[in-house]
Design brief:
Helix content: 40-55%
Number of domains: 2
Structural class: alpha/beta
Number of strands: 11
Radius of gyration: 23 Å
Shape: globular
Largest sheet: 6 strands, mixed
Strand content: 15-25%
CATH architecture of the largest domain: 3-Layer(aba) Sandwich
Length: about 400
């Protein structure tokens, strides 16, 4: 555990000695002058019928639009100029936070921007700190992230590395539950802010509720104060859970397989992503890369063959459950003795999704009870069938998501 001073704030913001001038770091402004792309994207989806009018969403879109048009010369790298304030958007699940972040990230023309799930960001940071501590003094001095005045402290090099990669950081699902994260966030973000990094984050919790009931939470409170100083905090007060509405608008299990099931799955993906164009994503799992070919707005889509015919395991499925609130799985076949390995992976996948209350939409060759009736583990598969039935219920679809456990190292 870090010393309590890990959360102490400096007497005033200072420009890191190695911070690059704005002219070298940022070649273009966040958005061309006069453009209102976030508003345009939002209005286009309203006109297309992909969204319903929502005053709370419209207000948040306007705030993001203003930030996207903010000239990057306000970043505070010219000796006293005001820093570009970020945004912290919080609200209940299904209110459209991820959709708005999609629009903002698309609208911002800044080249060195990055969007990342907050949990994955912290995993990367801990990994960097671990590797940094193994370096010799000479190796640290030669490292591109070296900070002369930092000594053996790994936080300053970690922050420099992050800031060199992105002037704009967009975090999905900002939440803090682990003491290992809580103990470094204060100093890490202090360094990022002092290096001129602008942060935009979405969360289900307001800042004052972060790390609630955590060990030594009083040491975390200065970080919350600094976060509120650097970011404008807005609540997305939409009264509707659009994600639940979209899930409940049609069945979430389609059988048998065929053109009708395929069309229904295509319609479900379009409905759940509100017309946002899907894009690929790479997830790091125990030193490996898990490729997600189609994802948008917290929804990932896979073929059964991608997840259950390949040698994946619990760590992969837990990572997916932690990253995506909703998963679509196409073309689950009937399985028998020769497909027992596929069935075993499918069981592990369903367990990971079920335990985290991740929503599942799938097409299958048969109803759950008939997917695997003979072969090793067929008796145990009955529990999976039962869970698949439950995952179609209104109570499960409305259940609040739980954060999946960390995959074993």
């Amino acid at each position: 555990m870090r010393h309590p001073t890990a959360f102490a704030k400096k007497s005033g913001p200072t420009l890191p000695r190695d911070a690059k001038p704005l002219s070298r770091r940022v070649k273009i402004p966040l958005s061309r002058a006069g453009m209102t792309r976030v508003k345009q994207l939002y209005a286009a989806r309203l006109a297309a019928g992909q969204l319903l009018p929502d005053p709370a969403q419209a207000e948040a879109a306007a705030r993001l639009d203003a930030l996207a048009r903010q000239p990057s010369t306000a970043r505070g790298w010219f000796g006293g100029a005001a820093r570009t304030r970020g945004l912290y958007i919080w609200g209940a699940v299904g209110r459209g936070k991820s959709m708005l972040m999609d629009m903002f990230f698309e609208a911002v023309s800044l080249k060195n921007k990055r969007r990342v799930h907050f949990h994955d960001f912290m995993l990367e940071t801990h990994a960097f700190i671990f590797e940094w501590r193994k370096l010799s003094s000479a190796e640290k001095r030669r490292h591109p992230a070296h900070v002369r005045e930092a000594g053996d402290d790994p936080i300053a090099p970690a922050a420099r590395r992050i800031a060199d990669q992105a002037s704009l950081l967009c975090f999905d699902e900002f939440h803090v539950t682990q003491i290992a994260d809580a103990m470094i966030l204060g100093r890490l973000f202090e360094q990022l802010f002092d290096r001129g990094v602008t942060i935009v984050a979405t969360s289900n919790r307001k800042p004052s509720d972060l790390y609630a009931n955590g060990i030594n939470r009083q040491l975390f409170l200065p970080f919350i104060k600094r976060l509120e100083q650097e970011l404008d905090v807005i609540e997305l007060k939409s009264a509707r859970d659009y994600r639940l509405d979209r899930l409940a608008a049609a069945p979430v299990y389609y059988s048998p397989l065929g053109p009708e099931a395929d069309a229904a799955m295509n319609a479900a993906f379009a409905r759940l992503t509100a017309g946002v164009a899907p894009s690929p994503e790479k997830l790091e799992v125990q030193g490996r890369t898990l490729h997600v070919l189609n994802q948008a707005m917290g929804v990932a889509r896979f073929e059964f063959d991608e997840l259950c015919k390949k040698p994946l395991g619990a760590a992969d499925y837990l990572t997916l459950a932690r990253r995506y609130p909703t998963l679509l799985l196409d073309r689950v076949p009937r399985m028998g003795l020769d497909e027992r390995n596929w069935a075993a992976r499918f069981v592990t996948l369903v367990d990971a999704l079920y335990e985290s209350k991740t929503k599942l939409v799938m097409s299958a060759d048969a109803q759950p009870d008939d997917l695997y009736v003979s072969g090793d583990g067929a008796f145990e598969f009955q529990r999976t069938a039962s869970r698949l039935h439950e995952m179609r219920s209104a109570a499960y679809l409305a259940a609040e998501r739980e954060h999946a456990p960390e995959p074993a190292k």
